[in-house]
Amino acid sequence: MSVVSQVILNADDELRYPTSGELESIKGFLQTGEQRLRIASTLADNEKKIVQEASKQLWQKRPDFIAPGGNAYGDRQRALCLRDYGWYLRLITYGVLAGGKEPIEKIGLVGVREMYNSLGVPVPGMAESIRCLKKASLGLLSDTDAAEAAPYFDYIIQAMS
What does the DSSP assignment read for 41-102? Predict the structure, then answer.
């Protein structure tokens, strides 16, 4: 949910107008709109490149994942991992666009640990894969944009750690 939506819902729940502090938070949100759009566009436009680079980094760090018996061994399992990379990158763009972590939490993190555990996927390995996704993504952004986007990756990493 965006800052604007949250302010409106909070004010309405309390039957009041938005406070000056809430209006300032909306102002800040609107002022960063161009940056948030630029970050989301860069990530979306470069998804394939980011996913390829991130997977290359992960397989170099953890060759056991793609070795026989590893969770990403074989074409099908590897394709599923790459699919998840794209999914998490999309979640990051949702958070960036909304200016908050709530979309990531609601759409992507509820039950994620349980799901991966039930599938026998090592959750620490998923956290490492998101670190690789972060590195590949932030390398395409300016320093200012990377600083804005990094906390969204860190949020997912922390949730999986």
Answer: HHHHHTHHHHHHHHHHHHHHH-GGGTSTTSTT-SHHHHHHHHHHHHHHHHHHHHHHHHTSSH
Residue 126 CB neighbours (<10 A): 22
Tally the C-alpha atoms within 13 A of residue 142's C-alpha that lie toward its C-beta: 6
Q: What tokens appear for 110 in the block?
A: 């509820």
Taking the model in full, what pTM does it have? 0.87
Return the pLDDT at 110: 67
Indicate the length of the chain as a whole number: 161
Do the Cβ atoms of 11 and 17 come closer than 8 Å?
A: yes
Residue 143 has a pLDDT of 98
Cβ 46 vs Cβ 89: under 8 Å: no
- CA 84 – CA 133 distance, rounded (Å): 11
Percent of the chain with pLDDT over 90: 60
Average pLDDT of the chain, as a whole number: 90
Neighbours of 59 (CB within 10 A): 18
127: number of Cβ within 10 Å: 15
